[in-house]
Design a protein that fits this description.
Strand order of the largest sheet: 2-1-3-4
Order of helices and strands: HEHEHEEHHEEHHHEEH
Number of helices: 9
Strand content: 5-15%
Structural class: alpha+beta
Number of strands: 8
Helix content: 40-55%
Largest sheet: 4 strands, mixed
């Protein structure tokens, strides 16, 4: 596939994967990207003059989403990279927290996985309304199909190069992770296994299971089939049911949308890596 064709597909996928008020495209830098809330208010007067701390790590899509949300709402905050800042990691652990993203101020904090919690903590409104389940599954499937196309384009000789700066996460593992998120979601829903960062990451025992992009894309076929099978039975699903997660008890609808968004954000990372590789 030529670079021009790959770039065209990436642009097409970006348009189709827009999450209404949550846009999974890379920011354009010129303000043209749609914000979470078109007329969202800036930070509440009760928090003006105070600074928050955003605990993050490289390659974390939820971290990026939280930072972009805070920036759009003009919330003053400092960033701590817990992966590359030992003191920052100790500060996070002192809160009794082991996962990122976290937004903190004065020893109190909110988990960054749920933007609604972040908004409440910093004193702004999100303006976000969850998509209907049928639209979520359609967009998730679209993202997974895009990931399959992208993984097939990576040369095997480069598939073990790091996908992001300041973090050792090979393209191969990132691609595997895009699909494994579906596995984690289904386990959380059907087996009541906690939905957490550790459970959405590829298990260490499976990290060497696939060695080429084609193998990962083939694995994706099985994952998409599992998702579609679950969806076919979703008429019996209560999307208001509570699901256990590492960031508290959440409604199934929230976890469903967040999981789809999670995969889609990593798909945009894969597209960015292809561009960086000149493919």
């Amino acid at each position: 596939m030529t670079g021009r064709t790959a770039a065209h597909l990436a642009r097409t996928d970006a348009r189709l994967l827009r999450w209404h008020s949550v846009d999974v495209r890379r920011p354009t830098g010129d303000g043209s990207r749609q914000s979470l809330a078109a007329s969202a208010p800036s930070v509440a007067s009760s928090t003006v003059g105070t600074r928050f701390t955003a605990f993050v790590q490289p390659g974390c899509t939820s971290c990026l989403r939280m930072k972009e949300f805070l920036q759009r709402h003009k919330v003053p905050f400092d960033v701590v990279d817990v992966m590359n800042d030992p003191d920052g990691r100790d500060r996070l652990l002192a809160l009794g927290v082991r996962h990122v993203p976290i937004v903190e101020r004065g020893g109190e904090y909110a988990f960054g996985q749920d933007i609604a919690d972040v908004a409440k903590f910093v004193g702004v409104e999100t303006g976000h309304k969850r998509l209907p389940p049928a639209e979520i599954v359609a967009k998730w499937t679209l993202a997974l199909r895009a990931a399959q196309r992208y993984m097939k384009q990576f040369p095997t000789a480069r598939i073990n190069e790091s996908a992001v700066e300041n973090r050792q996460r090979p393209v191969r593992i990132l691609g595997h992770h895009v699909f494994y998120i579906v596995e984690a979601y289904l386990k959380a829903v059907t087996e009541k296994i906690e939905y957490s960062p550790s459970n959405t990451n590829v298990p260490a025992a499976d990290e060497n299971k696939f060695q080429t992009g084609a193998e990962i894309a083939q694995y994706g076929d099985g994952v998409i089939a599992k998702l579609n099978t679950w969806w076919e039975q979703a008429t019996k699903v209560d999307f208001g049911a509570i699901v256990p997660t590492s960031y508290g008890k959440q409604e199934l609808h929230e976890v469903f949308e967040r999981s789809a968004w999670h995969s889609a954000q990593h798909v945009r990372q894969l597209a960015a890596v292809l561009e960086r590789f000149g493919i």
